[in-house]
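can u do me a favor
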């Protein structure tokens, strides 16, 4: 029998000990054991036991049990969010599967061996007893961890025909761990790919998101394509294979999309950017036209077609609508920063309104992914840096009387007549606030305004103009600083 000393949090050890004291067996199992064996941080802690749900509930003060799989959530006192609820599931043996989705019934078992045999992959089918350090590994999981392969427990085709989602899980787990898919398991995927049609879009979405958020989404989607399952996830991506682009690109549309996505992953950017990078040119196959004049392919309007296609793809994948809207708008406007004719501050302001202030940086990041995805080494050429500087400029609050916590109408209320004196007073106040920002309170400014109101026109105009020049200089200096920051001087 194998044994090991793995580092398990005390809350989890205590839980297992309580089950043992109650006369039951208790093992850690699944992803957490696998992760401990490869020194990876487990995402959650799963315990399996020969106790039945009611027996588990009887042993702990606070539990909940509201599912069909026998899983009882045990509430611990831990501060760590991953440990607040630890899931304890009775050993299960799976009966017949007749729909390629889930077993016809859930049956509990008294044997750990039954439970391990129903698990998807050998690396996920190792059990660990924390009190004794005993490792139960009946399917060669440790060997496969050493070989860095994902292999099904028992016959691949049979296991994929029981639950077709396992094919996508194989790709996902191999992307997360950087393991290869073992040859027979890969052949089983090729043979059973079509069964994925029966899987709900929600279950597929969850695996796809984890593939996209893994460190290697490009490799994973290549593998999914080669094994014939990508077409059941996002069929539109298959249409981009072999679609050549214009001379500025070295890769076909498919490879360009995957490379763009990979750059988003390399930069650890959000799911929104990753989805947008993956789909930004999805409209290209449908928009490609030959231009005799240019002697090259053109893709006019592909961002409009692509935004519409992305909306459908994301809806179909049950991506939450707020996220889908962001991704679609990033795709719709992704050509903006490549158009040299657009470089004006007002055009930049318009694009900020179009994508929303909260998403403009994402649009710039998408542009970076797009650029890297063409195989060009330079991520930030002058034009893009210029745009970044202008985005900062458009988003900053300019130095002007609008910054003041007082306005013209308040000064009129204090007794000043409408006319040029109002502007002079505001500019004089602005200069004082620039010298000492603490003075920018309504109370302070009203007091000073009353004093300034006593000055004659000549004195007040001089103060006002001095303040105006000063604020224009400072504003100019701020813009200059931004340009220096982006190296566009
Ligand atoms: P992670 O914790 O990183 O998400 P995981 O391997 O724990 O990875 P889960 O989806 O949490 O993945 O599943 C927990 C365990 O349940 C797996 O390790 C595996 O043993 C088993 N399992 C999950 N889904 C299936 C499935 N479709 N078929 C068979 N066993 C499965
Ligand atoms: Mg898990």
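np, heres the sequence
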């Amino acid at each position: 029998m194998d044994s090991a000393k793995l580092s398990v949090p005390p809350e989890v050890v205590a839980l297992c000990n309580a089950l043992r004291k109650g006369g039951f067996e208790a093992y850690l199992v699944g992803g957490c054991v696998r992760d401990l064996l490869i020194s990876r941080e487990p995402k959650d802690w799963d315990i399996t036991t020969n106790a039945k749900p009611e027996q588990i509930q009887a042993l702990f003060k606070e539990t909940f049990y509201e599912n069909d799989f026998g899983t009882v959530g045990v509430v611990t006192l831990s501060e760590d969010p991953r440990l607040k609820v630890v899931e304890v599931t009775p050993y299960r043996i799976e009966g017949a599967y007749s729909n390629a989705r889930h077993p016809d019934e859930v049956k509990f078992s008294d044997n750990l061996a039954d439970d391990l045999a129903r698990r998807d992959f050998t690396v996920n089918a190792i059990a660990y007893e924390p009190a004794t350090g005993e490792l139960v590994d009946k399917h060669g999981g440790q060997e496969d961890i050493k070989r860095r392969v994902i292999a099904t427990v028992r016959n691949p085709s049979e296991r994929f025909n029981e639950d077709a989602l396992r094919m996508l899980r194989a790709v996902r787990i191999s992307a997360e761990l950087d393991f290869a898919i073992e040859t027979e398991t890969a052949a089983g995927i090729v043979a059973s790919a079509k069964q994925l049609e029966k899987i709900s879009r929600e279950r597929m979405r969850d695996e796809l998101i984890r593939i996209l958020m893994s460190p290697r989404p490009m490799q994973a989607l290549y593998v999914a394509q080669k094994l014939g399952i990508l077409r059941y996830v996002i069929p539109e991506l298959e249409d981009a294979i072999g679609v050549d682009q214009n001379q500025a690109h070295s890769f076909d549309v498919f490879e360009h999309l995957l490379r763009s996505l990979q750059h988003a992953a390399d930069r650890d950017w959000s799911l929104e950017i990753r989805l947008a990078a993956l789909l930004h040119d999805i409209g290209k196959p449908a928009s490609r036209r030959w231009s005799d004049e240019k002697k090259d392919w053109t893709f006019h309007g592909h961002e409009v077609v692509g935004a519409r296609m992305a909306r459908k793809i994301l809806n179909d994948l049950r991506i939450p609508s707020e996220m889908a809207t962001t991704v679609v708008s990033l795709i719709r406007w992704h050509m903006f920063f490549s158009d040299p004719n657009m470089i004006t501050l007002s055009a930049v302001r318009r694009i900020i309104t179009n994508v929303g202030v909260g998403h403009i940086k994402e649009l710039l990041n998408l542009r970076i992914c797009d650029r890297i995805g063409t195989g060009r080494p330079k991520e930030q050429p002058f034009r893009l840096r210029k745009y970044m500087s202008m985005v900062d400029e458009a988003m900053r609050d300019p130095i002007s009387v609008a910054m003041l916590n007082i306005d013209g109408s308040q000064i009129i209320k204090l007794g000043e007549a409408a006319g040029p004196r109002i502007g002079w007073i505001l500019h004089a106040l602005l200069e004082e606030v620039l010298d000492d920002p603490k003075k920018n309170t309504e109370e302070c400014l009203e007091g000073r305004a009353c004093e300034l109101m006593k000055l004659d026109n000549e004195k007040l105009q001089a103060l006002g103009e001095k303040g105006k020049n000063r604020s224009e200089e400072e504003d100019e200096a701020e813009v200059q600083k931004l340009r220096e920051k982006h190296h566009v001087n």
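The first strand starts at residue 2 and ends at 3. hope that helps!!
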